[in-house]
Amino acid sequence: MKLTDKAWDNYIDLLRRVNDKAASEMFAYLAKHQWWANNKERQAAVDFAFAIATKYGEAAGAAAAQFYDEIANQWSEAVLPSAVPAKTATYAEVAKTFNGTSKTDNAQLMADAIGRLVKMAGVDTTMQNALRDGAEWAWIPRGDTCPFCLTLASRGWVKASKDAIRGGHAEHVHTHCDCTYAVRFRSDQGVEGYEPELYKRIWDNAEGRTTRQKVNSMARTQYELNKDEINARKREEYAARKARQEEMR
Fold it and tell me: Is 175 exposed, middle or buried (0-12, 13-18, 19+ CB in 10 A)?
């Protein structure tokens, strides 16, 4: 019994739209306001970032909770309570993220960081309910997957554990990433297209003994295979960033 690739893609697309909307609104604010001019402007920008992280974080959490309930109602042999959306990022977390990324003077990077906090609310929702219900989870890669996400994916289905949580949140959530946790309640369940054995072979064949060494080896291999595309994308992103910075002046 497997969740169809279409059903999973629809869920991922919904979360991506929520994250992208948050980042887009944050970027529009930064482009319109001189947030760097003085403490008052910076404080207003942090307040706006917190409002965005809360609004869209609640949307991401609600979407994750609804999807979790659909899976639980379909697959769980027990009658489970409704999934509870995770808490959104605190004001302190938003301020730390904003102030940290502001050092780059890159509005897009700053906006994407707020989008990451939104994604985190969705991932946290899945994790917290899986822990409550004793479910299994697996990190499902999607799109242009980074080596660390492939490393997580290679672990396969495991019992939900607090070991994957740091500081009250999912251990690994980053920007421009569609990878996230899926849950199941029996060993005959899963997600169509998820191949942990393949990811495990990639991990086993990577050079190095430590996790860091293997991840770095996978990154080098991935770069060699896709370096022309990666470099072209970086040039496009750099040109777009320069253009946005000129518009903000």
Answer: middle
**Which spans in 76-162 are helix H?**
91-102, 107-133, 147-153
The angle at the Cα of 170, spanning 167 to 175, to the nearest 5 degrees, equals 115
The rounded distance, in Å, linking the Cα atoms of 43 and 191 is: 44
Q: What is the pLDDT of residues 58-71, one digit of tens each?
A: 999 999 999 999 99
CA 169 vs CA 78, 88, 120, 121, 126: distances in Å: 27, 10, 7, 8, 11
Q: What is the pLDDT of residue 59?
A: 98
Q: Residue 131, exposed/middle/buried by CB under 10 A (0-12, 13-18, 19+)?
A: middle
Q: Which residues contact 65 (CB under 8 A, 6 or more apart)?
A: 82, 83, 84, 85, 125, 129
**Bridge partner residues of 136 (DSSP):** 159, 184
Establish how many alpha carbons lie within 13 A of residue 180's alpha carbon, considering only the half-sphere containing its beta carbon. Answer: 28
- The pTM for the full model equals 0.85
With b for 16 or more beta-carbon neighbours within 10 A and e for fewer, the 58-69 pattern comes to bbbbbbbbebbb
Q: Give Cα 23 distance to the centre of its chain.
A: 13
Distance CA 59, CA 220 (A): 37
SS3 222: helix
